[in-house]
Design goal:
The chain contains 10 helices and 16 strands. The protein is an alpha/beta fold. The longest helix is centred in the middle third of the chain and has 14 residues.
């Protein structure tokens, strides 16, 4: 039984730029369910800020492939978030064999809450040696792996990445392991460009210098493969312009908030540029031996060597979620976390930012 004196805190988006932390009773697990005590959840600075700002179509489903988000859309009020790490602390009847047990650390694609119940089969065990904070950033690595499966970088190719937020840096860290002919990044923030170089970019430049820089580095041909993860229509338009003739552009951003303007009348047409959308909810068309489970196992193994938790720039208590989103709305964040208590930090010496939001949030 749950402790009635310990209310559950849940983050709700109630209107554009209005978040409330609601209090309610602790959930009781039903048949086949486990209850998880959340330690930390990651805020997706791109997608969640679009939800916070009211830029998402209210009629659009949140994500039919994830159990916790399968029902309902983005019409206010709604819950959101999809990156929580915690500890199993209760179970219902009829738990399947092999499910995580009480005391085990797990990851779940579920909205921000201090405690939640989920079918045992939807919880992913957090591997030994991966901290809670790093586990909460698992979706970035899984998405980066999916981008690579869609992009299929070839030996010796010249590759550019537009956007060096958390996802762009995760992708860059994996691309740097390939035997490429060039690896360049585009990012307006000087601080992020410095991180980009540390993560393996041969050169990182602001958008205004990107076209000339890629021409110089490629001998005038452009990049055979360009990944767009900037979260902006301008970034996608730039990615098309950086591509070589017959080049491939992998569009990884969800460009919410209305139509996107692209210049399809010049280089896109004459250069025979191919644009492909990459979205992690669906596995790219691969051999039958590939599955979502295999992709996730690969992402967990790669996460050990990519210190994304060292890129976290903002941390807030879950109870201060309203202050967190208001602060993030002002820009400048790279990685952002909501802490529910008892967080297991990195044990490998990774260093990260510790900026903590201030202020209070309404709770009812």
């Amino acid at each position: 039984m749950s402790d009635a004196r310990r209310p559950r805190l849940s983050v709700w988006f109630e209107a554009p730029r209005r978040v409330r932390v609601r209090r309610g009773p602790e959930p009781e697990p039903g048949p086949g369910e486990l209850r998880v005590r959340t330690r930390v959840s990651a805020i997706s600075v791109g997608t969640e800020l679009a939800a916070y700002r009211g830029q998402l179509d209210p009629a659009l489903g949140r994500d039919e492939t994830l159990g916790a988000l399968a029902e309902g859309g983005f019409g206010y009020p709604f819950q959101y978030g999809y990156a929580s790490a915690g500890v199993v602390d209760g179970s219902g009847p009829e738990i399947p064999e092999g499910a995580p047990g009480v005391g085990e650390r797990v990851f779940a694609f579920t909205p921000h809450e201090s405690a939640f119940c989920a079918p045992a089969g939807e919880l992913l065990r957090v591997p030994v040696g991966i901290s809670d904070e790093r586990a909460a950033l698992f979706p970035y690595l899984e998405t980066a792996v999916n981008l690579l499966l869609d992009g299929v970088p070839r030996i010796g190719e010249r590759v550019a990445v537009v956007g060096q937020g958390m996802l762009g840096l995760a992708l860059l860290s994996l691309l740097s392991r390939f035997p490429l002919g060039g690896l360049w990044t585009v990012e307006p923030s000087p601080a992020r460009r410095e991180r980009s170089l540390a993560f393996g970019a041969a050169r990182s430049v602001p958008p205004a210098e990107a076209a000339e820089a890629v021409r110089q580095e490629s001998g005038g041909t452009g990049a055979e493969l360009v990944f767009e993860v900037s979260g902006t229509g301008a970034g996608l338009d730039l990615a098309v312009g950086l591509a070589a003739r017959e080049g491939r552009v992998i569009a990884g951003s969800w460009l919410a908030g209305g139509p996107t303007s692209l210049d399809l009348g010049s280089w896109f047409h004459r250069g025979r540029i191919r644009i492909r959308s990459s979205q992690v909810s669906r596995l790219p068309p691969l051999e039958p031996s590939w599955s979502v489970g295999r992709r996730r196992e690969l992402a967990w193994s790669l996460l050990r060597g990519v210190p994304l938790d060292g890129l976290v720039t903002h941390r807030w208590p879950l109870s201060e979620a309203a202050a967190a989103y208001a602060r993030l709305d002002g820009g400048g964040a790279l990685g952002a976390l909501l802490l529910s208590g008892g967080v297991e930090t990195a044990s490998d010496g990774a260093e990260g930012g510790t900026a903590t939001g201030s202020g209070s949030t309404a709770a009812s």
